[in-house]
Amino acid sequence: MTSFWTLFTKELLRFVKVGVQTVAAPVLTALLYLVIFGQVFEGPLQGRLQAFDGVRYAAFLVPGLVMMSVLQNAFANSSSSLIQSKITGNIVFILLAPISYAEFFWAYVAASVARGLAVGACVLAVGAAFVELRLAAPLWALAFALLGAGLLGALGVLAGIVSEKIDQLAAFQNFVILPLTMLAGVFYSIHSLPAFWRALSHANPFFYMIDGFRYGFFGASDVAPGISLAIVAIALAAVASLCLLLLKSGYKLRT
Amino acid sequence: MEKRYGAVHALSGVTLAIEQGEFFGLLGPNGAGKTTLINVIAGLARADAGAVSVMGADAVADYRRARRMLGVVPQELVFDPFFTVRETLRIQSGYFGIRGNDAWIDEVMEHLDLTGKANANMRSLSGGMKRRVLIAQALVHKPPVIILDEPTAGVDVELRQGLWQFVSRLNRDGHTVVLTTHYLEEAELHCNRIAMLKAGRVVALDSTRNLLASVSGSRINVRVMARDGTQHLLQIEGYAQLERELARLRQQGVEIADLELERPDLEQVFLKLTS
């Protein structure tokens, strides 16, 4: 366990030491979204929340922004740490050590969850200053935050293993993670979408994380939270299995 | 052991046993397969065929036990820019399952003259200092087997001497040391046994003494002054001819300007076996 804790602590320290970049900057980004969408466009967007009667658009938006920040930062933590270690070569210190594949994987994921939750908590605190928020089912919110951050942390490990250059990782982030997050209902309820786009949204695993997290605030969601949580858990198990398989084979880490 | 990288046969039928407590040298020209061999032993590379065992632990099937036995100083000058020297060494200790290792960390830093830089960020260190930290990282868990891949590349004379004193002490204490180096005099001075690699094959494996004995004996270089004042070099192979040649020179009235004894060294062995 000492190996796991050391790697986990090292990954924690890594993002804490550059907290302005890893925590403050994403909080500012979320704040800008909140100001622009929650304040400027609140009127036109208010009518697009069929599943959330009586909820102000700004209040609807905050949980979405919180979860978006959790997911994006969890992904950024593991993926950027791994790719930097691979490019600079200091990953050799981990590869030479008697750390098991599972310890390696879960240490990176746990640190990603920690960063995701830290950024998410800050965004929530900022959001609460703008709109009144209530937590109807906090345990559901926590469960989705933990599993969602875990899934994105695992995807970050996968991207970090597979990528050999920064631009390959950036492509993964810009062409996969960002669109899936932005089209997952952060800014709207999918019930406001035409049937085709609504059906397509159900194929997006990120939608279930954001919808389920929002259930924790309003006690209402587009999909039943139990189904959403099961989908997220299955996705996490699938990505974790793939990562452990790659780590065991030494794919793109050991020659 | 076999290892290919595409069309390149990096290791071709390498079979080697290094005994416990040895100071073992792995020598060879660039691209001979030394680093590949070390990487396979350390688990950084996987052999296509064959197996490696470190003190009875298979490097793949029982990789955790095998890696606990090993302390590897990589050839590349790598470091984590987020941490100080002490943090780096504490983290490395933790990777090997050791907590509260400060007493040994302090001792290693003392021997490698790193104490003054304990709280300096890795980014701020010179190349030589970073090399010292790499060596310290390999030693934090007191590994019974220490692998040094070009440990003195780019380091000053003072560190070299300190490093060899420290490594020799560890070897005397029972640690097995495996060394690759381009400085053949270092290998000649420290290694009891040497393997020479060429194009992925072991071309020589013997004690340093036997390898040195395998090249012709001492050579005497005699610089003589001719009557017209010009200097000439006369090379005498072995002592047997020495007296006869000197007598001939005296007879001819040739003055000896300089006389130098050239003993066989590893460089001659190396050139003979690898060129």
Quick overview of this protein structure:
Chain A is mainly alpha-helical.
The biggest sheet of chain B amounts to: 6 strands, mixed
Biggest sheet character of chain A: none
Uncertain spans of chain B, ≥5 residues at pLDDT below 50? none
The CATH superfamily of the largest domain in chain B appears as P-loop containing nucleotide triphosphate hydrolases
For the residues shown, what is the average pLDDT of chain A?
91
Which strand order does the major sheet of chain B show? 6-7-8-3-9-10
CA-CA gap between termini of chain A: 27 Å
Secondary structure tally, helices of chain B? 10
CATH fold description of the largest domain in chain B: Rossmann fold
The SS-based structural class of chain A is mainly alpha
Binned strand content of chain A: under 5%
Commentary on this structure:
The complex is a heterodimer of chains A (255) and B (275). The mean pLDDT of chain A is 91. Chain A has helices at residues 2-17, 19-40, 42-46, 57-88, 92-95, 101-130, 138-162, 166-182, 195-201, 205-218, 225-249. With 255 residues, chain A is an all-alpha fold. Chain B has two domains: 2-213, 3-Layer(aba) Sandwich (Rossmann fold); 219-264. Chain B has helices at residues 34-42, 63-69, 85-95, 102-111, 127-139, 157-172, 184-190, 208-213, 242-251, 266-274; strands spanning 2-5, 8-12, 23-27, 53-54, 57-58, 70-73, 145-149, 176-180, 193-198, 201-207, 219-225, 231-237, 255-262. In chain B, a hairpin with a 5-residue loop joins strand 11 and strand 12 (231-237). Chain B starts with a strand and ends with a helix. The mean pLDDT of chain B is 88.
